[in-house]
Amino acid sequence: MDRGPANITEAEWAVLEVLWDKGPATVRQLTGVLYPKGGPSEYATVHKLLERLDGKDCVRRERREGVIVFEASRPRDDVVGEQFETLIDKMNGGSLQPLLSTLVRNRRVTADELRELLALVEQLDAKRKKKR
Hints:
Elements: H1 10-22, H2 27-34, H3 40-55, E1 59-64, E2 67-72, H4 76-92, H5 96-106, H6 111-131
Antiparallel strand pairs: 1-2
């Protein structure tokens, strides 16, 4: 049963980013990266975040040499894509156009970025035409 990552919080994202960037880690290792001067309460926080991410099927745990090691169970692009789809559905009734228009206007997209976007659109359009 694929539950998918429902509403990942900023703190959960921070944990996932470390796992994606650095690979499998223990709670202690993650705490050291996320809270370098942290103590027992930060350790407990990271442990709780990992439990929540496990419940969202975003991490998996494995016992290695007597220690539990966590790793991201899903690729970054998959999780980002699902979160983006949720945002589109929530804010624009499933339409991507208003969201993209707002991003282009408000984020000051450069000419090079616009050219890349146009090239991507043309590429996707060509693929769709071939499928017909």
